[in-house]
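Pipeline run #58 for the internal structure catalog. This entry was flagged by the ingest filter as a single-chain record with no existing model, so it goes straight to prediction. Upstream metadata was stripped on purpose; only the residue string is passed forward. Reviewer on rotation: M.T. Logging verbosity set to normal.
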Amino acid sequence: MVKRMGIHRSELPVILAAVIIIIGVISWSHTEQKRTDAMTNTRITLASLQVAFQQYQEFGGPMPKLRPGHPSIYSFLAAYQRFYATRNAQGHWNNSPHLLIYLRPKLTTMGWIPMPGGGKMQGIVCVRDGFGHVIHFLNNPAKNLHAPCFAVELPLQSGQRKWIYSSDEVR
């Protein structure tokens, strides 16, 4: 078959190397595009959360307190959605339109939020970054200079850990 294609045996290693290099470049390009998309999703999500937090504070929402047994972001998400929730005539809680509903659905987790008076309401209980890691809510300025804000630890790059903060994304 090699003779029919006009390829000499001595050329096979060069052709094989070229095919491997082309596959490597395509694979690297695809991986780099996925990483770029994940970083874009992370930055947009952090900025959206920070804007929602600023909006929440402007309208008088109290500083959310961290709840044991839940990711730190749960405290903000629950407080924010409680603040904008409405109760219908039958006593059921409804999630009013707010900024969080515009977050990318693949980055959010739905669940039940306990409401005052013993009821509960379905809402967003967790938000992840573009890489799939849970975003943290930092509420104590004494422990972190960026607080109050949202933060995420990026995957290792060159053996170093790097955090990005929503307060740096929104200025």
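catalog note: The longest helix spans residues 12-58.
catalog note: Residues 30 and 79 are 39 Å apart (CA to CA).
status: ready for reviewer M.T.
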